[in-house]
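Suppose a colleague, Dr. K., hands you the sequence of a protein chain of 194 amino acids and asks what its three-dimensional shape might be. Before reaching for any lab equipment, you can write down a predicted structure in token form. Begin with the sequence itself:
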Amino acid sequence: MNRQLRTKEKIRAAAADLFIRHTVSRVTADEIASYAGMSKKTLYNHFSSKEELESEVFLHFIHDIRLQIGRLAEEDTDFLHKLQNLMRIITHVTGILSDRLIEDLQQNKRELWRMIDEERHISFVEGVTPIFRQGQQQGFIRNNIDIPFVMEMLYQNIRIISDSEFIRSSSRSLSELAPLMLDIFMNGIMEKGK
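The predicted structure, expressed as tokens, is then:
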């Protein structure tokens, strides 16, 4: 990796860490540059604006998750193993994204949240569909289940539990809601006794 890319990655990693800890709207470009150990001028040599950096941080995050799910889908293992690992990935991701961060994005960074939502929708459906098709072929998911419909329904459930108002009205955090929702959802589409 050349120096330019290393510097850009260092900035992106610093921003991601600060966004996770303090939320996006509370972090300034000065703080990101300082945390990355460089000048604000260097930061702006790599990113034209803080908004561009924000987008890149979350696109990179989604891309990493997409790669993890893609590798999982390609593994030579059965559906249940893949489902367990998929649940681990989702639990890990929801553990990183605090309720405060979700609320900040939805209330103060609406365009960024819209972009994140579109990207995670595409990544989720494209990545998880092959895993669920395998589950159906192996007899774990009922044959009368329409997989594309299930993917959309599951994604919409993820959207619901990641809504800041829903989280606030719930007695649970996002990191608690995700595995609970997946458990309830999966028990509804699985063959009895599987």
